[in-house]
Amino acid sequence: MSEDPFYDERSSRDSHTVRLAYVRLEERRTSPIMPWLLRGLAAMALIVAIVWFALPAPVQRQFPERILVRLWHQWTGERQPLIEAIVAAFNRSQDRYEVISLSVPASVSDQKLMLAIAGGEPPDVMTQWSPTIGTWAADGLLQPLEDLLTAEDLRVLREDSYPVALKAAYCHGHLYGIPIGMNNFACYYRPDLVRAAGLDPDQFPDSLEGLVEWGRKLDRVDAQGRLERVGFLPSRLAVFAPLFGGGFTERPDGGITIDNENNRRALAFIGDVYRHYGYERMIQFRASLNTGSLAIEWPFVNGLYPISVDGQWRVEQLANYAPEIEYRTAPLPPPKGGRVHAGFGTVNLAFIPVGARERVGAMAFMRFWSGLQDPLIAGAFNASGGWLPPLRTIVESPDFQDFLRKNPQFRTFVTAIDSPAVEPVPPVAYQVYFNSRMWQAEDRVVRGDKTAAQALQDLEEEIERERGRRSRLSRVGARSDGAP
Amino acid sequence: MRRDRLGYLFISPWLIGFAVFTALPFIASVCLSFTHYTVASSPTWVGLANYQTLLFDDPSFWTAIWNTLVYALVAVPLGVAAAFVLALLLNVEVRGIAVYRTIFFLPHIVPVVASSVVFMWVLNPQIGLVNGILRLVGIEGPAWLQDPSWSMTTLIMLSLWGIGGSVVIYLAGLKDVPASLYEAARIDGANVVQRAIHITMPMMTPVIFFNLVMGIIHAFQYFTQAYILTSGGPQESTLFLALYLFFRAWRYLDLGYASALAWIMFVLVASITYGLFKTHKRWVHYE
Fold it and tell me: Are A283 and A299 in contact (CB under 8 A)?
């Protein structure tokens, strides 16, 4: 027996055990059923009771007599209390509405919103920081806002907003979002590492070519030839294309300018830097970095990227979590002959989903947060969060000026955002698709799979195909609806 | 009659759940696949336009089909074979076998999200454990998840991490093989290998068949690991059908198109399963 590894003498015993179990089950089956039913119901009631008491209590309303305005936002962790402070300030500032906020993680916010709209229970206000408004507006998820704003509000928006804010918030001829914060990109660099490389941190390069040269002097390679540090690594075509005189803007026919000479030069520039280091080596190096949104995860902090192109939110993070690091910021310089003060920006928008119950209250809160109601109050919010304000007058507020005095490196971003040459991801109907595919195109170039020209040509074809698909579906849909 | 009613009463929670959460959405998705639907607005009838675009004008769809088929054709047989061999080994009565069985079963109950995040670090090309060990023997490991030529292989290898569930099913099957067959074979002079090939294998074919069918169905629904580890990249090398469906539905707000995709996926799975059932009489032996 023991020589057979697959034989188990318990098998025969097990068969007997199974038969016995069947006999017992049969006995049980023929016994009165009611006691079993009662026990089952009691067990279910117990489970329901446990779940009921284990669930967190719903948010208690402080002002139940007021009209409820429900806000969904995406800030979590240390940022969540800042949003709650804005909500509390609004609730204190008036006696008609009460805003209740819910933090919805960005990774699921899209799905949650769509399901809420489908279920007839959307929030009254929602915020979004990624470029999705074009798609959401085109697909009917958002409400146009003009009728809720006064003529004065519209004037302030027109005259006091940064150019990129309006480019991002207006889509398909309507205003779909109120800007509550701006995001743009500039160079962060480490003077200590720059000095150690024999460079003068006061002489920051005024051209991209000069920046690449600086970067090469900051590189470090280990004995096995692996990259330990990369001085300057360009990334995000949308950030670099405007510097080359290109960029991605909506054409009159609804398409996007993609495959043109300037965009090709910008993408080729990014690809060339990768080619210099070796595509394989760069993939390995990049994969080793954690590029999360927290300061402690940022390779700039541990010196792996001594010159980083990143957003203004890093200023606040560095002040809070890495105050010992010496750093400076500078505008991303254009290439020789390129376009100065050009760049890429995104806008944090607050909007009203379709089906929202309390539109007027929602707009009252949006006016409060955005500074349309009072830029001085909004100055305090923006200073406390280290946010880049959506209106110029908020920047001039005493609170925000105080913030700038304490964080002088932030000024680079304030200056850079106020340029007509800063472009958003165009808010077209296929914005989300375009944004995702633009990354893919860049990825193919930095892996050496395609040339810049091939990648952009393919991207343009792909986007045209998607655009055609959407318009074909809309046309067929309109015909079946009896629309002309 | 009274007993029948009681029976239905007992299964009614499941029946209601099935009707509301499975049958109705299943039927609704057929209708939605012929519409343009973005959740916010009512679905508009577009006939076969979604299917037409998917089949003739969407290269990403064909990439997703190809990736899913490759995964199903490699990961499923590999998983079936590995789980079977492991079950044979864990069926041997040696000291501490319960501990070994527990060790091999544990990964099956670890949440996929948690294990995926751990693997993300373990497989990091520069600072990960795997490449660190390879470096000790002079091999520079690849970028497992970041290199398109390795990413699919990596996900297939990772699929073996959760075979504990199949192993338990095989173990149960092995316990069910009548001892009398082995005894008769031994009397006839069959050795260990002959008994394994001529008794264990044929007697286990119903269990193998079950695992194969379930494996194929799961392969076509493969989502979580790919979503967490690669998000379909790099270069769409791990874009699976379920992942593409998710992107189309929730990222690009195209539920009609995603429904059409789901139905093509369903037809594919149903066809393959039907094919397996057609062949099973030839190689599956029932007692």
Answer: no
> Among B124, B177, B252, whose Cβ lies nearest the Cβ of A433?
B252
A154 contacts: CB under 8 Å, gap ≥ 6: A146
B187 to chain A, any CB pair closer than 8 A? The answer is no
Of B38, B93, B235, the CB nearest to A443: B235
Residue A243 contacts residue A343 (beta carbons within 8 Å)? yes
Residue of A109, A284, A450, A479 to mutate when probing chain B, most B C-beta within 10 A: A284
3-state secondary structure (DSSP) of residue A71: strand
A17 domain-assigned: no
Residues A246 and A317 in one domain: yes
Q: Is A452 exposed, middle or buried (0-12, 13-18, 19+ CB in 10 A)?
A: buried
Class of domain B49-283: mainly alpha
Instruction: Show the domain range for A443.
Output: 185-343+427-459
Q: What ranges do the domains of chain B cover?
A: 49-283
The predicted-structure confidence for A212-252, as pLDDT tens digits, reads as follows: 999 999 999 988 788 889 999 998 999 999 999 999 988 88
The domain total for chain A is 2
CATH of the domain at A273: 3.40.190.10
Q: What is the mean pLDDT of each run of 10 residues along chain B (287 residues)?
A: 84 93 93 90 89 92 96 95 93 89 91 91 87 90 90 95 92 91 92 90 92 94 93 91 94 91 94 92 82
> Does some domain include residue A10?
no
Q: In chain B, which residues have their Cβ closer than 8 Å to the Cβ of A432?
A: 251-253
Compare CB distances from B177 to A11, A111, A286 and report the shortest one's residue: A11
Q: Would you say A456 and A263 are in contact if contact means Cβ atoms under 8 Å apart?
A: yes
Minimal CA–CA distance to A187: which of A161, A207, A216, A167? A207
